[in-house]
Amino acid sequence: MDKIVFHGDQEDIAFYVLDSTKLAGRSFLLVTDAEEGDGTCYILEEHAGTDDKELVYEMVEDDTLLDHLASIFGEQTEDVDIEF
Questions:
Q1: pLDDT per residue over 40-78, tens digit each?
Q2: What is the pairing mode between strands 26-32 and 55-59?
Q3: What is the helix (H) or strand (E) element at residue 71, kind and residue range?
Q4: From CA 51, how far away is CA 69, in angstroms rounded?
Q5: Contact 17/30 with Cβ under 8 angstroms?
Q6: Do 18 and 30 meet the contact criterion of CB atoms below 8 Å apart?
């Protein structure tokens, strides 16, 4: 499982990538905060950063979009037990 680290103002936060998908030309990641066992899942949307080498990820907060993406990720990750 790939690990990505987000560098915040106060601390770094690590997430583990479970899956990725594209929807309407936009890229999304399904991540968890636990490498193994039970953890909390988040769906992040990828955006271009201030330069060509930087990517910015934001948590998806739109409930309609979250429901749609949860359905997609649920189908793609049949081997992982995820509750949305």
A1: 989 999 998 777 777 888 999 999 999 999 889 888 876
A2: unpaired
A3: helix 63-76
A4: 28
A5: yes
A6: yes
